[in-house]
Amino acid sequence: MRLFIALDPPEGLRDALMDMQDGLGLGREVPPENLHVTLAFLGDQPEASAELLHEMLGAIRAPAVRLTLRGAEMFGGRQPRAAVALVEKVPELVALQEKVVQAARMAGIELPRRRFKPHFTLMRLPRFLPDFAEHRIAAWLGRNGDLVYAGGDALQFTLYRSTLHGDGPIYDALAQYPLAPTEEPA
Ligand code: 2AM
């Protein structure tokens, strides 16, 4: 099973992400139900590891994570492969990501050390881009590069199975784990 662990956007934030998708005019949109912030990508894992992982994830105690969009970027450097909305790296998000990685390691899953750059992938771009792509990308970054959007709290995280198909992956939520709501200041 190809597995990953992610945060899903609250509804209002999903709409904001879809608005951002509308403006690029290049590549393939990530379907609304697939928009997420990956906390850990685990790759192919045997069923036994998945069960142990589920136990470890269920033991995580962590507060809700405020999801704030802060700017947009193209990933891939000189060969842009994806348009993404960046997510503010608040301490609760960093701590949760570390706990998730630790849970995976305790379940015996080896993870490469990777810098965590939280984001929603919005569009995936083809290898060969048309001539007008550069202009569209520059215009889109001009509109979204400084964007700030308070997207509300993620109150849970999800273990997903990803099945690859020719026309894009299918994600199945295998389990969800609650995060503790934070109290509003009086
Ligand atoms: P991305 O959105 O930045 O492409 C499910 O595939 C999720 O895991 C995607 O959101 C993807 O991040 C992330 N991921 C991280 N490493 C990956 C890899 N080597 N292959 C596929 N997906 C990966």
Short description:
The chain has 186 residues and is of the alpha+beta class. The chain is built from four helices and nine strands, in the order E-H-E-E-H-E-E-H-E-H-E-E-E.
Domain unit count = 1
Major sheet:
5 strands, antiparallel
Q: Which CATH architecture would you pick?
A: Alpha-Beta Complex
CATH structural fold name: Cyclic Phosphodiesterase, Chain: A
Judged by helices, strands and strand pairing, the structural class is alpha+beta
Low-confidence segments: none
Number of helices: 4
Mean pLDDT across the residues is: 96
Query: Class, according to the CATH hierarchy?
Result: Alpha Beta
* CATH homologous superfamily title: Cyclic phosphodiesterase
Rough shape?
globular
Listing every helix as H and every strand as E from the N terminus to the C terminus, the arrangement reads EHEEHEEHEHEEE
Radius of gyration computed on alpha carbons: 17 Å
* Small molecules (ligands, ions, cofactors) in the structure: adenosine-2'-monophosphate
Strand content: 25-35%
What strand order characterises the main sheet? 2-6-5-4-7
Helix residue percentage: 25-40%
How far the N terminus sits from the C terminus, by CA atoms, comes to 45 Å
Instruction: Give me the count of strands.
Output: 9
Can you walk me through this structure?
The chain is α+β, with helices and mostly antiparallel strands. It has one domain: Cyclic Phosphodiesterase, Chain: A (Alpha-Beta Complex), CATH 3.90.1140. Helices cover 28% and strands 34% of the residues. It has four helices and nine strands. It has helices at residues 11-22, 47-58, 91-106, 133-144; strands at residues 2-7, 28-29, 37-44, 65-75, 82-87, 119-124, 148-154, 156-163, 170-178. The strands form two sheets. Strands 2-6-5-4-7 form a five-stranded antiparallel beta sheet. The longest helix has 16 residues, at 91-106. It is globular, with a radius of gyration of 17 Å. The model has no long low-confidence stretch (mean pLDDT 96). It binds adenosine-2'-monophosphate. Adenosine-2'-monophosphate is lined by residues 4, 38, 41, 82, 121, 162.
